[in-house]
Design goal:
single chain, Rossmann fold, 4-stranded mixed β-sheet, elongated
Length: 542
């Protein structure tokens, strides 16, 4: 089976030798050219949790040994940037939770996280749901003290910001961790690997279904053998499963994490070190950081002719909305979770006083100047501006406005939809422009955004990587959403709560502190009240 599967992929060898031959040293790791496209591949994490000696459960002979052998194979033969390990007495329930909390805070949206767990597993006799048994797990089937239910493990894995997560669970009763339903195996080609790495993946391979597995793990033996012998420059879980599924004593499973945001076609990838082989492994190559961003640049194709030149196209993509717990200045309403967005257009600059007055016939700003951003307008004023501009340009208004009630007409045919305010998620995605730092400029705000006494002319400061000006500072910007708590799981094209008392504005202003200018920072106000530090920029559906 191993050699039959290898034969089906040999045609890729030349491509990926080229792939790896174009690795170029960078300050933070390596950069890879894939068929002429300059792509950065992501930081690779390898996490090992294994327990031989329990406080209340019987001892095991092989988990720690298997984990360390897999660790050594991966660090010697594959690109691994950082290893995290919990063994025996350190692998308590609290420490395992801390490990995932720390990983959530430290890993980035473009990273890949491999997790190997080996130890006791147990099932609830009533619900038939499985659990990991940490070193301090109790034996009482009803109390289930310090057990880690599979559903909790699934949630901790799903919450990681990393683009790719791959769990290998060598424990009893791991089968309810994953969804095994999937389509036909993909045709393996260079396009498959590029697509697989660009999409979000949440995958699990277990040593058995909802059953006991032996201490002397044939599953682990085959996994180690496959990782050690593989000659492919790049391997995925499907490749590994093809070789471990022949285990005779149990029924290994491969699938996706139940209820996760796994995207069809996405897959975790191991990249083999150049020069390493199954017979002569090399350990002298240093571990490196590998990073691949998703949608870190606007579409290459020009906007459609009907789109105004002051709009910038933003390509669809996935990102982590909110901030990590370690970010300086973070507030409790910035719960970090993954968001998937369709493509859209957004104004390169905030709406100026000259633009507003030409269309609306008035300029409510306190400090006046045609090139300064319009301020002292309410959220309702901004919505009305969007509709009037849509009508002027022959587009269908995005909003139906009835007094203070505004309804977003989301069913308008693509290409004819009028101007609107960006959603909170669209605003942050455009502001970040593929970055994960507090500001698109890094750990500190861009020059010129702090310490000024009034707003600056729109577009007078340097743009972010996607060509958008004044996303940090100048004036805060109204967004569509009612203010409220974020969802606890991943979302697609979110537009906020259905109702509320305040509307969101983003970006911070010339009068605020630096922390309020962060990409994730949120603020809100009564939609009928005008503020002299709040303006807006326009948006359009793609």
């Amino acid at each position: 089976m191993y050699y039959r599967y290898m034969k089906s992929r040999l045609l890729l060898l030349v491509f990926f030798l080229f792939f790896l031959s174009r690795v170029k040293a960078q300050d933070r790791g390596i950069r890879v050219d894939i068929v002429g496209a300059d792509t950065v591949i992501g930081k690779q994490w390898a996490v090992f949790i294994a327990i031989d000696r329990y406080k209340e459960w019987g001892p095991l002979s092989n988990p720690v040994k298997d984990a360390k052998e897999i660790r050594d194979i991966l660090t010697e033969r594959y690109f691994i940037d950082e290893v995290v390990e919990l063994y025996d007495r350190d692998a308590t329930a609290a420490n395992i939770r801390r490990l995932f909390a720390d990983l959530r805070a430290r890993s980035g949206i473009n990273d890949s996280v491999f997790v190997f767990y080996s130890g006791h597993g147990q099932t609830d006799s009533v619900t038939n749901s499985g659990s990991w048994i940490p070193v301090d797990g109790g034996r009482d089937q009803l109390a289930q003290a310090n057990w880690l239910p599979n559903i909790q493990v699934r949630n901790m894995l799903s919450a990681l910001p990393a683009r790719h997560v791959f769990l290998v669970a060598d424990a009893c009763f791991s089968g309810d961790m994953l969804d095994t339903s999937k389509g036909a195996s993909p045709e393996i080609s260079s396009e498959y690997y590029k697509r697989a790495y660009s999409l979000v993946s949440r995958q699990v391979m277990s040593s058995g279904s909802s059953e006991t597995v032996p201490d002397a793990s044939e599953f682990a033996f085959r996994l180690k053998s496959t990782l050690r012998r593989a000659e492919e420059p790049c391997i995925d879980p499907e490749f590994l499963f093809t070789n471990v599924r022949e285990v005779r004593s149990t029924q290994p499973l491969l699938g996706t994490i139940l209820g996760s945001e796994h995207q069809s076609g996405g897959s975790f990838l191991f990249f083999r070190r150049e020069g390493s082989s199954g017979t002569a492994e090399t350990a002298d190559a240093p571990a490196v950081t590998l990073v691949i961003p998703a949608a870190v640049s606007p579409p290459e194709a020009p906007p459609e002719p009907s789109v105004a030149p002051d709009l910038v196209p933003v390509r669809s993509g996935s990102f982590m909305l909110g901030s990590p717990g370690t970010e300086k200045g973070r507030k409790n309403d910035e719960f970090r979770h993954r968001v998937n967005l369709d493509s859209f257009y957004i104004g390169a600059r905030e709406v100026s006083q000259g633009e507003y007055q030409a269309l609306m016939g008035s300029n409510p700003s306190l400090v006046k100047g045609p090139l300064l951003p319009v301020t002292n307008i309410s959220w309702l004023d901004a919505a009305e501006y969007c509709n009037r501009r849509s009508i002027k340009e022959g587009l269908r208004p995005a909003y139906t406005i009835n007094g203070t009630t505004v309804t977003w007409n989301k069913d308008v045919q693509a290409g004819t939809a009028g101007y609107r305010l960006p959603t909170e998620a669209e605003w942050e995605y455009a502001c970040r422009a593929g970055t994960v730092s507090p500001y698109y400029s890094g750990e500190t705000p861009p020059p010129g955004t702090v310490g000024i006494s009034s707003g600056s002319p729109v577009g007078s400061m340097a743009p972010n990587p996607w060509g958008l000006y004044d996303m940090h500072g100048n004036v805060e910007e109204w967004c569509w959403d009612w203010y409220g708590d974020y969802a606890a799981r991943s979302e697609t094209n979110p537009s906020g709560p259905l109702s509320g008392s305040k509307r969101v504005f983003r970006g911070g202003s010339w009068s605020g502190r630096a922390g309020n200018m962060r990409s994730a920072a949120r603020n809100s106000g009564n939609p009928a009240i005008s503020l002299n530090t709040v303006g807006f920029r326009i948006c359009r559906s793609y």
